[in-house]
Amino acid sequence: MQNLWDWFHWLYETTGINLSIFYDPFDRGRFFAGLLMTLRLSVICIVLSVVIGIVGAWLQDSRSRLVRTLVYWYIQFFRNTPPLVQLFFFYFGLGSLLSTTGASGQPVPLVSNIAWAIVSLSFFAGAFNTEIFRSGIQAVSHTTIEAAESLGFSRLKTYGLIVFPLALRISLPALANNLINLVKTTTLAYAIAVPEMLYVTSQIWSDELNVTELMNVLLVCYVLLAGALALLMRRWERALQLPGFGA
User: How far apart are the first and last CA of the chain?
Assistant: First the structure.
C-alpha cells in the first residue's frame, strides 16, 4: 500500500491535486475514522428505525385509542419538522436536562452527542418507516387475515407470521428509498460535532486548504455507500419475491 500512498504524494507535487487523506498518515487516519463512524451511525440507525417502524405499524392498529393517538402524533411530529431541528431539540433541549455537575463545577452531559444523533435520526426515519409498513400491511388481503383467524391464530401471531412477512415484500422498494435517505441524513450529525465523515473532512480541508478535492471525495464516498445499500436492498427484494404475489 505504501507505493499507492507515495503515488498520491507524487500526484500532489506534480499536479497540485492535494489528496492528503491518502499520502499523509495523520489525515488518512482521521478520514478513515470518520468513514467508520459514518458506517456505524448508518447501520445502527437503519436497524433501530426499522424496529421502530415495525412496532409503530403494529401499534397503529391497536385497540387502544390513546396508543393510536400517540403513534399518530409521533409520526406527524417527525415527518413534518426538519431533521436538523429535531437533532438540536434532542441535543440542546433534552440534553441540557440530562446532565450532572462534574468535579470542576461544569455541567457534564449524561448522554453523548453520538447517542443523541442515533436517537434523533432513528426516530426521524422510524416515522417514515411506520407509514411505509402501515401501507404494506393495508395492502395485504383481508381474506388472508380472516383465514389465519379461522385457524385459531392470535392477533400477534397473525401479524408476525403472516401479515408482516407479506407486507415486508410490498414495502421493500419504499423502505429502500427511506434507508438510503437516512444514510445521507447522517451528515447532519456534523452540527453537533459527531466525528463522522463530513465533520472530519471539514477539519482536514481547514488544515490543508484542499476543499475541492475532498468535496469530490465525499461525493464519491456517499455515492458508493448509497449505491451499495441500494444494491443490497434490491437483492433482498428479489430473494423475498413470491411468484404471482404483488404482480
Answer: 50
